[in-house]
Specification:
Strand content of chain A: 25-35%
Radius of gyration of chain A: 12 Å
Structural class of chain B: mainly alpha
Structural class of chain A: alpha+beta
Shape of chain B: globular
Strand order of the largest sheet of chain A: 1-2-4-3
Helix content of chain A: 10-25%
Strand content of chain B: under 5%
Number of strands of chain A: 4
Largest sheet of chain B: none
Oligomer: heterodimer
Helix content of chain B: over 70%
Shape of chain A: globular
Distance between the termini of chain A: 33 Å
């Protein structure tokens, strides 16, 4: 699956799975956003029946807040972990 | 190893659900019931129950109990039944492993098909899907996916998706092997599955279901021996209902199929029932979407303001792109080209060939209209490039049936000639 969905490219499933395991994140406590032309991989992680009020934000293919596509203001979050263009932020 | 074992169990479970089709073939033949109504009824049941809060596990239990009853009632022919079961199982299992090795969901599948499936998997109904994006798209495929995902012993979407492989193989088997299983039939089936299999179509897209349903419909339309009696008319209508609820273009495909059936029908009364029934089914779907979402749009937003786009009809560049992409795509699925060249080289056309040419003209007109009036947010070229190949793949089913029929006749003729000499 990693070959098809990528680690920190395409949908970035590898990074998502990795940080969930590494930081023992609860699935209902995360939000995933992809800033490139790839579908959001949330379907492989979330349980859609639970209410989502996430504290953790996983960003895939994020190239900073100055890019046209980005509506994510990283100043309002604390950086926990990053690998290339993939980030894990926590709400301040 | 455990993955293979789970896959083995899942394929067995899904195939058990459809096993009445293997048992009842003789009865269908005796009563001139041509359209494998059990597959059609079972899938329509999944569709209907998706509108209600109903635990589909009960439906699975009920169908399995019925199938066991059918097997005991027809136990004289158990050896043939077992051979058929094993062949179909072999193909489903092999294709499932091939897909399992390259596990991937396509773009649209990740964007919305899987989300709708997850909602249905979590006991949601059709009305819960109205809060998702693309809320005017039909949901039969999502219901089937969710239903078989729910009965699997492992909670992974792929085990629901195997049902698409099962429907594809089961229909391929039915259209190739009509009576007895022979070495020739088996070889033809293997070749047909091998040549028509496209791994891309099994990535959660709905076109593989459309392909299978069109295969079943065209097998009925292109066979002169199969007549539109009342039972077949009703079965055909239920099949059209599956096509309508698989994808939005299903509405137009169902209209094309019910129109061209005119050429083969002697009983015009049943033909008028079919056309009227089809129009009612389409109206019913539009009304359901309209009252559940408050609006009805074809391909949400892609065709909004279609009347404002009317002057696109004079956009020559669009025609150019559509025609170029159409030719590129039929090279990708050459069966269409092969059949059309063969037919056009004939001096006299039979009814079957007239139906095929009508199907070709109507489907090209539909294709033209779909891409001329598109208002896709990434532009019409993007829309054409990302969706035409899947549409052409689904309609190629019609050409496959013609090819299989002609090839079988030609082979038998040559074989008889050799024997005679």
């Amino acid at each position: 699956m990693l070959n098809n969905y990528g680690y920190c490219k395409n949908e970035g499933l590898g990074f998502v799975k990795d940080v969930i395991d590494k930081f023992r994140l609860e699935k209902k406590d995360i939000n995933i956003q992809n800033f490139d032309d790839f579908p959001n991989i949330s379907w492989a992680v979330y349980n859609f029946t639970e209410n989502l009020n996430p504290n953790f934000f996983i960003l895939i293919n994020y190239r900073g807040k100055d890019t046209d596509r980005s509506k994510f203001d990283s100043d309002k979050f604390k950086l926990i972990y990053n690998f290339e263009n993939c980030y894990l932020f926590e709400k301040l | 190893m455990s993955d293979i074992l789970i896959l083995f169990v899942q394929v067995s479970l899904i195939l058990s659900f459809f096993s009445s089709n293997l048992v009842l073939q003789n009865k269908y033949r005796q009563n001139k019931i041509e359209l494998n109504p059990d597959i059609i009824i079972n899938l329509n049941l999944i569709l209907i129950l998706s509108f209600f809060e109903f635990d589909l596990i009960y439906l699975f239990g009920l169908i399995i109990a019925l199938n066991i009853f059918f097997i005991f009632k027809n136990k004289d022919d158990l050896i043939n039944l077992l051979i058929t079961f094993l062949i179909i199982f072999f193909f489903i299992f092999t294709l499932s492993i091939a897909i399992f090795r390259e596990l991937k969901l396509g773009w649209d599948a990740q964007e919305f098909h899987i989300l709708k499936t997850i909602i249905l998997f979590n006991s949601g109904t059709f009305f819960d899907l109205q809060n998702t994006i693309q809320n005017n798209i039909p949901h039969l495929g999502h219901s089937i996916w969710a239903f078989f995902w729910k009965i699997s012993i492992i909670d992974h979407e792929f085990f629901g998706r195997i049902s698409y492989v099962t429907i594809f193989i089961l229909v391929c088997y039915r259209v190739v092997i009509k009576k007895k299983l022979t070495f020739f039939n088996f070889t033809l089936l293997t070749l047909f599955i091998f040549l028509s299999y496209d791994p891309e179509q099994f990535n959660g897209y709905q076109e593989i279901l459309l392909f299978s349903f069109i295969l079943l419909a065209s097998d009925f339309i292109l066979d002169n021996k199969k007549q539109l009696n009342l039972v077949n008319t009703i079965s055909f209508l239920f099949l059209l209902n599956l096509i309508i609820w698989t994808k939005q273009e299903g509405i137009f495909i169902s209209l094309i199929l019910s129109t061209i059936i005119f050429f083969k029908t002697k009983n015009k009364k049943n033909f008028s029932y079919l056309v009227l029934g089809n129009l009612l089914l389409i109206t019913f779907q539009i009304l359901i979407f309209y009252f559940s979402t408050g609006h009805y749009e074809i391909q949400t937003s892609d065709y909004s303001g279609i009347f404002n786009n009317f002057f696109m009809i004079f956009d020559i560049e669009r025609y150019y792109y559509i025609i170029i992409e159409y030719f590129i795509t039929i090279i990708q699925y050459p069966i269409i080209l092969v059949v059309l060249v063969y037919i056009l080289s004939k001096r006299k056309l039979s009814n079957k060939e007239k139906m095929l040419l009508s199907f070709t003209i109507l489907s090209i007109l539909f294709c033209m209209a779909a891409y001329i009036f598109t208002n896709h947010n990434s532009g019409y070229i993007y829309h054409i490039k990302t969706s035409m190949s899947r549409f052409i793949y689904s309609i190629s089913a019609f050409y496959w049936i013609y090819f299989l029929n002609e090839f079988s006749i030609l082979f038998k003729k040559k074989f008889n000639e050799l024997n005679y000499k």
